[in-house]
Specification:
Blueprint: H1 7-11, E1 45-48, E2 54-59, E3 65-72, H2 87-94, H3 104-113, E4 117-122, E5 127-134, H4 138-151, H5 156-173, H6 177-189, H7 203-207, H8 213-223, E6 230-235, H9 239-250, E7 272-277, E8 285-292, H10 301-313, H11 318-326, E9 330-336, E10 344-352, H12 358-372, H13 379-396, H14 400-414, H15 418-428, H16 432-442, E11 449-454, H17 468-471, E12 482-486, E13 491-498, H18 512-521, H19 530-537, E14 543-548, E15 553-560, H20 564-571, H21 573-576, H22 582-602, H23 605-617, H24 631-636, H25 639-649, E16 655-661, H26 665-675, E17 698-704, E18 710-718, H27 727-738, H28 746-753, E19 761-764, E20 786-795, H29 800-817, H30 821-837, H31 842-855, H32 860-870, H33 873-883, E21 889-895, H34 898-907, H35 921-931, E22 942-946
Parallel strand pairs: 2-6, 7-11, 12-16, 17-21, 17-22
Antiparallel strand pairs: 1-2, 3-5, 3-6, 4-5, 8-10, 8-11, 9-10, 13-15, 13-16, 14-15, 18-20, 18-21, 19-20
């Protein structure tokens, strides 16, 4: 079971900075020397070209791959003109619209041939573009990137189409309460500075974007200039050759002259309160924000404030133990202090379980804040936090793409490789006095903004803000076969894969496997409560977590090799001798039910629809309910049920063990010794292969939910798993049809790119839970039966019928006519390289290796490359005809007007489509055919289910 975090914070977390650019000599700096205590140990080469473009080349020591990351000092902070918010983010989209030399289809052809994955993101002060690919394609990638940065060209039709896609992204985010709370918080906190609006921009400005074609060209001309741009080339690369390639293609880019000062925000004048009424049921949110200093790698204030709030409200803090673990009044407590170019906001927040407790929780947080100015942290607490910061960063740097991404989040501040190392040296120099000084300077009444969000009424008095001084304390007051992946990485990871998953949930106790795993990884050991374990792991930057799927539960540990023995003594007793405390059971049971009801059903239509499709196809089998369970099933689970499941499931005979990194024989032996204390036995009885329902025609379930957009998923059961000979063929077919998060795929091109109907459209032949949060599926999701699935990301309700017809039409073409020889060769070439990208991290490599053991298949990358190399287009098309269908499918739609959609489907009436921009006549003619396409759905094949009833039992 994946763990849940405030996703709005993740979306806003990339730090950004903009500085006036000074002229620099156009010469390459020698390979950088690294200090012994630097967190980034790489020897780099830096050069500033005559036009102001900065180049940083970082040989990472990882073979075969290169990541080109291009941070531009342009974000929503630069949107100074009224009515023009959102354009920095908009150009993140438009930069993929091509040039005269490389129109979109030709650009995507180049990227696909490189086996690359790429994307971009926008923050308050930054737009970052990144591409990871095979090293032999470096010059090609630099060439096409140089072309789009210098010669971006798009017609007004493409501009208007993409503007609707941006609105679709806004609509996609509209279901998340945290996003709205942050909009309101920032709008209240800032009167003048452009941090008043979020990166997405004001809704009224987004809706007006189709009318801003001429301004869009002005925005690009102003801000996309070499003096604001850095090119980071990281990976298996030779610095001088890489710099020569950059000079070859980028040196003619003309320097800009535009300067638009961002208006300074005046000093705050008093505490503010804002409330966000939420239209549907959700748990209340309570946040407090204070004016935070701008990022600096020389001044301590920002680093000190961030460290102080993390210690005071993070998972090792006394308040976290009190509110989350002991009193169980909140299920999330968090702090968020982003690095920004100008003074921004530091936020503390909580998600409260009961509206009646909102005032209590607010005051508990304010009381903790009030103490910060008078009670310094201890030397040990600060030393532990510094250790966690350092080792936590190092733990993440296990692949080239992550190294480049981390660099970009700091490099763009002043376009220097050294920024991150300087910042961490600054953190290392902090003292308790520095943290206390930051509290006294920034955590003050005048800058406080308290924001709440709720569906139900909150307690009286929550809008009356007390003075912080009034809240301050008064003076008077056996044996195992271990898979070892040896490498030079100092971070050691292990995985314990048990043959126990939600398919083993007893009838009426759905969710038991997930809750049992949580009681192991999040409820402490017999000797230590979870807060003690969390505090002990904090200075080690160690982690121990669980993931539950249909057939398997995986416990993963990660620790620096220097801390191995200490970590094993703290973490493994949670599995060997679980605490099984009643208070932890109640807390985690509530959290699991909230994850089902709120985080899945209420706040995420897309994942809700995908889970519902899986449940419908495999109804009556162990795959017929979410891993989280059902509301009734969770309610029925007792602590004794958990203890019994643990004893049966987590046995010596049921576990596969893998370990990777700079692993010694002694470390492997100590892990074996610890696991020998697991209960003996073979584990739970093996599950049978579930038999999915194969519809005759289209069977539709419409989930009636109060939502702005309409989410669509459809599919059919699939007997093809990684053990099946047709697996490589279907993998290629789904990649061509709808590769996840790939704009070159066919469905994406037809629905998103050509028609601008939504944010994206993807296809799968393997389960991909949580797909909206990542590029690649997590390892250790092995299943005995799979699902062919097409995921249509939310569309406007009036376009739902047409979009379903369009997707079915394109799927039908693939089934009937197959994939062309040219498309076959292009897709196969992409996958032959991309298979390395999708298994690039330490966690992925170890996880896929254990999955290969479970499936009894060769190592994944070799299996796929061997299988792909032997394929022909005829093989692929035969597999498509054998296993797939565009006529016999289960469909799940989540929408507000369920009755209206049912009437449209059953009547088979023409479904019109309107565009903001002009379209080629060929597209309009095709739309007429699609709009008249007969689906043949009878009334008895359409079921309407109120959202509240889904997964109730």
């Amino acid at each position: 079971m994946s763990k849940l975090f405030p996703m709005a914070l993740l979306a806003l977390s990339a730090p950004a900075f903009t500085l006036p650019v000074q002229a620099a000599p156009a010469q390459a700096a020698p390979a950088g020397k690294t200090a012994g205590n630097d967190v980034l140990p790489f020897k780099t080469t830096e050069k500033t070209l005559a036009n102001g473009l900065k180049v940083i080349v970082v040989p990472t020591g990882f073979p075969n791959l290169v990541s080109v990351t291009i941070p531009v000092q342009t974000g929503s902070r630069n949107e100074v003109e009224p009515g023009k918010s959102g354009f920095a983010h908009f150009f993140e989209h438009m930069m993929f619209r091509g040039t005269k030399a490389y129109p979109p289809e030709k650009y995507q052809e180049v990227i696909t041939k490189a086996g690359a994955r790429q994307n971009a993101y926008t923050s308050d002060d930054l737009t970052n573009y990144y591409t990871t690919f095979a090293k032999e394609d470096l010059e090609t990638v630099l060439k096409v990137e140089a072309d789009r940065f210098q010669h971006l060209s798009y017609p007004i039709e493409a501009f208007k189409t993409e503007s609707r896609a941006v609105l679709g992204e806004y609509n996609k985010n509209s279901a998340n309460p945290m996003q709205k709370l942050f909009e309101v918080q920032r709008d209240a906190a800032f009167t003048t500075h452009t941090y008043k609006h979020t990166t997405m921009g004001f809704l009224k400005d987004i809706e007006d974007m189709p009318n801003q074609y001429e301004y869009s060209k002005v925005f690009f001309d102003r801000w996309y200039r070499p003096e604001r741009t850095t090119i980071i080339v990281a990976g298996d690369v030779e610095p001088q050759k890489a710099i020569a390639m950059v000079e070859k293609y980028w040196s003619k880019w003309q320097k800009g002259s535009y300067n638009a000062p961002v208006p300074a925000e005046p000093a705050p004048r008093g505490a503010l309160y804002r409330h966000v009424p939420w239209p549907t049921a959700t748990l209340p949110l309570v946040t407090m924000a204070f004016r935070a200093p701008a990022f600096s790698d020389t001044q301590k204030d920002g680093a000190a404030l961030s460290m102080l709030l993390s210690l005071s409200f993070g998972s090792t803090s006394p308040l976290y133990k009190r509110l989350v673990q002991d009193e169980q009044k909140v299920d999330q407590l968090f702090d968020y202090t982003p690095n920004r170019v100008d003074p921004s906001l530091a936020t503390i927040g909580a998600r409260v379980k009961k509206p009646a407790d909102a005032l209590y929780v607010r005051d508990a947080i304010l009381q903790t804040i009030a103490q910060l100015r008078d009670t310094p942290v201890t030397e040990k607490e600060l030393a532990d936090a510094k250790s966690a910061n350092k080792y936590g960063l190092i733990r993440s740097l296990d692949n080239t793409e992550q190294i480049a991404a981390t660099l970009a989040s700091y490099v763009h501040f002043n376009r220097s490789y050294g920024t991150l190392n300087r910042y961490y040296r600054l953190v290392d120099s902090l003292t308790p006095a520095d943290l206390q000084a930051a509290a006294r300077k920034y955590v003050v009444d005048d800058s406080m903004v308290v924001t709440t969000l709720a569906h139900d009424a909150l307690p009286a008095g929550i809008d009356a803000l007390p003075k912080l001084a009034s809240l301050a304390p008064k003076a008077s007051d056996a044996k195992f076969d271990v898979l070892v992946q040896k490498s030079a990485l100092p971070q050691v990871r292990f995985k314990l894969l048990f043959a126990a998953g939600s398919a083993h949930d007893p009838k009426g106790k759905e969710g038991l496997a997930a809750l049992t795993a949580s009681m192991v990884s999040e409820a402490g050991s017999r000797e230590r409560k979870i807060d003690e374990i969390t505090k002990s792991l904090f200075p080690l930057a160690g982690s121990f977590s669980d993931q539950v799927d249909k057939e398997m539960t995986t416990f993963s540990g990660s620790i620096h090799k220097d801390k191995w023995n200490e970590f094993l003594d703290i973490a493994l007793p949670q599995l060997i001798e679980p605490g099984f405390r009643e208070e932890d059971f109640r807390r985690l049971k509530d959290a699991q039910k909230n994850a089902l009801q709120l985080d899945l059903k209420d706040n995420n239509e897309e994942e809700f629809g995908k889970e519902r499709l899986q449940a419908n196809v495999y109804a009556g089998t162990g795959y017929g309910h979410p891993v989280l369970g059902t509301a009734k099933g969770i309610d029925a689970i007792t602590l004794d049920d958990v203890k019994a499941f643990y004893k049966q499931a987590y046995t010596q005979g049921a576990v596969r063990v893998g370990i990777s990194g700079d692993v010694s024989d002694a470390m492997t032996a100590s892990l074996k010794t610890a696991l020998a204390r697991l209960p003996q036995g073979a584990g739970l009885p093996a599950t049978t292969v579930p038999q999915g329902r194969k519809p005759q025609g289209l069977e539709v379930e419409i989930i009636e939910k109060n939502t702005r957009a309409t989410a669509i998923s459809f599919g059919l059961p699939l007997e093809v798993t990684r053990r099946h000979p047709d697996f490589p063929a279907l993998w290629l077919a789904k990649t061509w049809l709808g590769e996840h998060r790939a704009s070159s795929a066919h469905l994406y091109q037809q629905i998103r790119e050509l028609r601008g109907l939504n944010y994206g459209d993807y296809a799968y032949i393997e389960a991909f839970p949580g797909g909206m949060y990542g590029f690649f599926p997590r390892p250790n999701l092995g299943r005995k039966a799979q699902l062919f699935e097409v995921w249509i990301r939310p569309v406007a309700p009036q376009n739902a019928h047409f979009t379903l017809r369009l997707a079915l039409s394109e799927l039908g073409k693939m089934v009937d006519s197959g994939i062309s020889q040219e498309d076959f060769e292009t897709t196969r070439g992409y996958l032959m390289k991309n298979v390395f990208v999708m298994t690039a991290t330490q966690d992925q490599r170890l996880g896929y290796a254990l999955d290969s053991q479970w499936y009894d298949t060769p190592e994944f990358t070799q299996m796929m490359r061997d299988g792909l190399s032997k394929l022909t287009a005829a093989d692929v098309n035969a597999a498509i005809r054998k296993h797939l269908s565009a006529k016999n499918l289960s469909v799940v739609v989540i929408t507000k007007d369920a009755a209206g959609l049912k009437q449209a489907l059953v009547s088979d009436a023409f479904s019109p489509i309107k565009y903001d921009a002009a379209k080629p006549q060929a597209v309009l003619d095709e739309d007429q055919v699609i709009g008249n396409m007969k689906l043949g759905i009878s009334a008895d094949k359409v079921t309407i289910t109120p959202a509240a009833q889904a997964f109730a039992e």
